[in-house]
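Annotated sample (chain length 84).
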Amino acid sequence: MTITTLTSREFNQDIGTAKRASMQGPVFITDRGHVAHVFLTIDEYLTLTGKQGSIVDLLAMPDLADVEFEPPKINTIFNPVDFS
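Output written by the structure step:
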């Protein structure tokens, strides 16, 4: 694993370099000489957080399965508009 360090200016000017470097390991992005951000591939991020799953699983929102929702019924009858 290779660790790459870029200044925020270098990162902003050439994000392609950061993307390519992130395939080899984390990219540290500095702001005024101090590490401010870490740029990772999504696979590395999921490995670190332990959150493995497909986009379908993430969009399904299983935590909300117990929420009940009944949309309100529309009781209003609309009359046609006469444009003549």
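Annotation: The chain has four helices and three strands.
Annotation: The longest helix spans residues 15-22.
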